[in-house]
Amino acid sequence: MSLLDNLNWRYATKKMNGTKVPQEKLDYILEAARMSPSSSGLQPYKIIVISDKALLEKIKGISWNQSQITDCSHLLVFVAWDKYTNKRVSDVFNYTMDERGLPHSTMDDYKANILSLYEPLGEEWQAHHASKQSYISFAMAIAAAAEQKVDATPVEGFVPEKLDKLLKLEGSGYKSTLLLPLGYREESEDWLVNMKKVRTPKEDFITEMTIEDAADFDEAPSGKTIGSLPNK
Ligand SMILES: Cc1cc2nc3c(=O)[nH]c(=O)nc-3n(C[C@H](O)[C@H](O)[C@H](O)COP(=O)(O)O)c2cc1C
Fold this sequence. Notes:
Radius of gyration: 21 Å
Distance between the termini: 44 Å
Bound molecules: flavin mononucleotide
CATH superfamily: NADH Oxidase
């Protein structure tokens, strides 16, 4: 089955049947999430996996009582950095350089550039930026689950502050961003399973542009190369 076939097969499952997802399928989904691209490769997020029923019951209570939270096999909790710090960014870049056999100093200019960009934008912007990165990983997990014929419901419907407290995230440098229950659909009790999948029509979704359609914009190029690695 192609990626598009799998994306058509999947849907935001409303009722799961409690069947366990095999470990190798779970591992595959988690690996797809880990392989996600992220801004500057910082991966400012991680995943907590929960299958403990007592804990899932508590999470359901702060997630609008959505039944998938307790009827799933595993709940993936995506959490993202609450801010960017010199140490966090340095740790990631140093690890990357070690893995590539390059000196840590290779990234010094690039690191200084992004920190000087992010710092004045404040911690709220930084947390939001990190959270956006976690959504990309989340999408990878959803697509990988579909490929494995595992149902997954994207869930933003929970109270992050309460979940952070429950999972003892406060003071950890991470905040919860998203939930992804994984499991199997209970077709007989799911109102959405046979509904037509509806998306914005292609002609409204996709716009082609040329220079003729663009504004008269005379800004000189900045000459900055924030997006590329220095040749050191
Ligand atoms: C970021 C995000 C948050 C969502 N939160 C919820 C949620 O809390 N509960 C739920 O049942 N569905 C949730 N959905 C599912 C969407 O309603 C669903 O993906 C959308 O209507 C498209 O339908 P489909 O996924 O079945 O194709 C969420 C989807 C996304 C992408």
